[in-house]
Amino acid sequence: MKLQRAVIVLIAMMLLFAGRSSAQQVKTDYDHAANFGQYKTYSWEQVKTKNALDVDRIRSAVNAVLAAKGWTQVDSGGDVSIIAIETTQNQQT
Predict the structure, then answer these.
(1) What integer pLDDT is reported at residue 43 of this predicted model?
(2) Side by side, which strands form the sheet with 80-85?
(3) For 34-64, what is each residue's pLDDT tens digit?
(4) Nearest CA-CA partner of 81 in 37, 50, 45
(5) Rounded Cα gap, residues 41 and 12, in angstroms
(6) Nearest-CA neighbor of 40 among 64, 73, 76?
(7) Enclosing H/E stretch for 68
(8) pTM
């Protein structure tokens, strides 16, 4: 009986900590008065991440979303230049 209780408590703690470690907050900002309908092309300036594997993931995800909106990627000189930067902040709660 004690072993079952210990296992249940252990599983509950693991689920609690797994949920807390995967929590993330994403913030974005843009000019709400901007007319994004005028932009049709984009070029990449920089993707800065801690993990090199994330560079291709970020580019692929953004490319897919912008292509679905009718935007075209150009090597340089696009209507919009895209910069993606990964930042983290640890905060005690």
Answers:
(1) 92
(2) 72-73, 41-48, 80-85
(3) 888 899 999 998 888 888 888 999 999 999 9
(4) 45
(5) 49
(6) 73
(7) helix 52-68
(8) 0.63
Cα separation, 83 vs 64, whole angstroms: 16
pLDDT exceeding 70 applies to what percent of the chain?
72
Name the amino acid, one letter, at 38.
Q
DSSP state, residue 48: E
Task: Give the residues across from 48 on adjacent strands.
Answer: 85
Average per-residue pLDDT for the chain? 79
Q: In the numeric block, which tokens belong to residue 50?
A: 């801690």
Decide: 46 and 81 in contact? Cβ < 8 Å: no
Lookup: tokens for 85 = 């930067």
Q: Which two tokens stand for residue 92?
A: 């005690």
Does residue 78 sit in helix, strand or coil? coil
pLDDT of residue 40: 94
Amino acid at 77: G
> What pLDDT score was predicted for residue 61?
92
